[in-house]
Amino acid sequence: MKKKTVLLVSVIAMLGIFAAAAWWFQSRQSERIGTIATEHSSTLVPDHAMRVGPKGARVVLVEFFDPACETCASFHRPVKELIAAHPDKVLHVLRYAPFHHGSEVPVKILEAARRQNKYWETLELLFFSQRRWTSHHKVKSELIWPLLPDIGLDVERIRTDMRDPALDALIKQDLADAATLGIRKTPGFLVNGKPLPSFGLKQLKDLIESEIEANY
Amino acid sequence: MESEELDTNWLILFGAWLLTSVAALGSLFFSEVMDFAPCSLCWYQRIFMYPLVLVLGVGLMPVDGKPFDGKVVRYGLPLAVGGWLMALYHTLLYEGFIPESAAPCSQGVSCSEDYIELLGFLSIPMLSLLAFTAIVMSLLLLRKRINS
Fold first, then answer.
1. Does the beta-carbon distance from A3 to B67 stay under 8 Å?
2. Tens digit of pLDDT for each residue in B62-90?
3. What pLDDT, on a 0 to 100 scale, did the predictor assign at position A202?
4. pTM to 2 decimal places
5. Would you say the ipTM is above 0.95?
6. Which of A174, A184, B28, B115 has the greatest CB tally within 10 Å of its CB?
7. Which CATH code for domain B3-147?
């Protein structure tokens, strides 16, 4: 009996230590990100970042995404509805974490479209047609181009604007900030600098609602 | 012979099992809690390490009136040696003794990407090598003690 007790106690102890360490690590991590968010707010929302929503909103949702990421595409509509459910209260900040091979191209197309005031339309076009221009997690950017005139984009201007080295700097900055903020998967959400306790739409909804509760 | 006491052989096996469990949970902590993506070589080492938790764990149970199953070395040692070889290769690669271009992991996460260095020098591949070394030694010691 004694040996079985030793085994059982060891299993329980190890699992307990694991759970406690995971909990400790996660709370320390969110504390760290919270400090960065308050002390270096430009890491969270730099001047170059695309913002959607009212300027004075007291709840800021920062989303790090990759145009080629399937989960980002499937989250697009529900997140939009989530924000629309609280008009004038949530500012949506869109940032890039192009982790997929070749994702810099659609990111640059998006930023170039922004200069034609067609950011949102292009984003939705890219997400909704994603299956047509990605295969096996690789971007086939040549398949994006024929889609662009449909939403009234000046494709020639996109091609010129895409060559702007400022876009490379922007992507580099977003990737660096993502690393600083502990974003290693997309979509990565931060609500007022707080990461989700665990990934999921429900968790995002709860966090946004609790932040609205606390700030309004 | 009464087998309820914690004899030395059982303790050696128990130590090895404890080590595999800590290594398995530790690797899960790195990937699932700290979000370090495991590279392909890490996966091969996991393939050897994870079954050891169950193989050695089952071996620790009393069987046929004996305090534990001495045959466990037969089944555990090949896994431990396989993992040890992978860990050795990975450590050499990580420390730069083997060029990365000769490695089967050009895509995804680089096998020489450094995530963490405990005490300033202990990398994850090195931890793996140390764990597999200790497990192999424990099992060899156990075999020697059982045979004599």
1. yes
2. 888 888 898 999 999 999 999 999 999 99
3. 93
4. 0.71
5. no
6. A174
7. 1.20.1550
